[in-house]
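Handout, section 3.2

Students often ask what a structure token actually looks like in practice. Rather than define it abstractly, here is a full record for Voltage-gated chloride channel protein. The first block is the sequence as you would receive it.
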Amino acid sequence: MKKFKEIGLILLFSVVVGSVVGALTVVFGKGLLLVSEWRGSYFLPLIFFLPFAGLLIEWLYTKFCGTSRQGMGLVFDVGLGREEKIPLRLIPLVTLSTWLTHLFGGSAGREGVAVQIGATFANWLSRFKMFKLFSEDFSQIALMTGMAAGFAGLFQVPVAATFFALEVLVVGKLAYETLLAASIASFTAYFVSQALGLEKFSFFVVERPAFSVVIFMKLILLGLVFGLVGYGFTMLLRHGKKQMTQWFPSTYRRIFFGGLLLVVLLLIFHQGRYSGLGSNLIYLSLGEGKVYTYDFILKLVLTVLTLSVGFQGGEVTPLFAIGSSLGTVLAPVFGLPIPFVAALGYATVFGSATNTLIAPLIIVGEVFGFEMIPYMFVVMCFAYHSNFNQSIYGKQERIGWF
């Protein structure tokens, strides 16, 4: 009877987490779309306020944050049992600060926010008395369940979100004990997000080459290139944060002067082309629009700078943009269809930078069509081993030969 009761509580917990987190990601996602639209319409007046928005973000985190300042680092600490609690105030803090970053032109993503929202709510809910029936490990299961719900609610890729939560904390181990809870929460968040009108990005890749030895070799080379770019992003971000801390020990000076530099660079480089998520680059890449050979480099550098000086957001959507725009450049070189290579780059650079394997494989299927998975498997296998086992998540653990 106890086992059935535990399963029932897991189902209840997962549905509640998926429902609430799904709704919260809709609020965050729609708010982000709105501020991005405003930025697109009034870029020139808004961009000049980016340094001052940075000061406001830093004040909010200094005044109200506490341990929440660690962001994804705190999520990893709780997931790995080093910490117990994530303050609930992290949800409004990270949401508002990310909106400010995007409104005034910073180059950042959104997945980190969604994952933090899900992890924070699940961690808070798991502390209720009714869930004390479980073993001590339930806090880790709860956290991964929330992470999956946040990713699924925002990106509407429930299967990929489930495996992202299962594999991202510890490289070399899949947390199968979380599979039931994470999958239910992911699909619940997906259905809630869909019902509340948050649109999913999808693009079916029609033109795919027939498998051959030549195509196989080309996929290997693409995997190596995408993997190295993901590794480059990771190392630049890591060293960028370290260098900015050394140059500007004061967090207020760091974000203000970093914001000033961003204003200059974003104005020089096509006046906002590289602001925000990078969705514009993704659409251009897949629609065979005008993509410059340097787009992926500038998006990479400006995203690293935005996050290094203290602005808030995530890395995943910029990684999607970097990968897809790089794929557009590589496709003619390899004699392959542009949307095909852009789709592979979209997910592979993300997988390389996050040091995950299964999630990017499934993302390709859920976004571009499951017929893409065999090609992605070859590319991702080589990308996964050309990132030198590095990750944008500095507190990610590795076991075994990893």
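Discussion prompt for tutorial groups: The chain is about 70% helix and 0% strand. How would you have guessed this from the sequence alone?
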